[in-house]
Amino acid sequence: MAAVLVAASRRRRPWLFLLLVMVLVLPFWWATVATGGRALVLGLPAAVLGIVIPAAVASVLAWREEGRTGLRTVWSGLVDIARVRPRWWWAVGLGAAPVASALGWLIGPRPGGTPAFPWYLTPLLFVVFFLGAIPEEVGWTGYLTARLTADHGVLGAGLIIGTAWQLWHSVPYLAQGHTWSWVAGQFLVSVLARILMVLLYRHSGGGLAPACAVHAMLNTVQIYPDGFAGFDPWPSVPGMLLALLGAAWLARRTARF
Question: Which of 1, 13, 70, 140 is the 20 to 30 A CA-CA neighbour of 58?
């Protein structure tokens, strides 16, 4: 994977990317606030339509920087699941969110009643969320991760991307009526998850598929049992931290951290 990072284009402009995605999301924030955060689909507000922004910005910048080569690079690895080596990184990526949720269920309040979605729909929801993660991860992972990891390491890149990622979502969270405490908890869970995504990218062959899988699993887990509106992020923080520390330990054991 070191070769992938060395080959990453030094023409990438991560700070310009971050500026553009923050500016272009403003109309979607306005629509979300104007509609009172009303859900459009799966409990998600109007801002969900903004998921195309990272892919659009990444594709335009990559094309201007490197033409077809740059465009191919930011979209690479989307379906090449065989690129992930060793294969057990899939278990790490897909298992992190369920582990965090299970530990959160053990240490936090246990909601009862009928789930917002039947459990048998879980695989379908995962597929839907995976498809929805693609346009975001083309930007956050395909465009940003290699360059920022080369410049700042796994932890630095994860903190930068994770912070931007959650600021990008912050207004929709608040418009939906979530408290600042809830937003802070979601921020911590998501930044820890983003550091894990960067670590997976660094150590499992690069590409978009692992990041999309982690992103999709985060959403799938959070929709149970009471939907996004009923999800409490704070009990999941220790579990996500534990999953990240476990992944870092595995990376060190393979002498490639």
Answer: 1
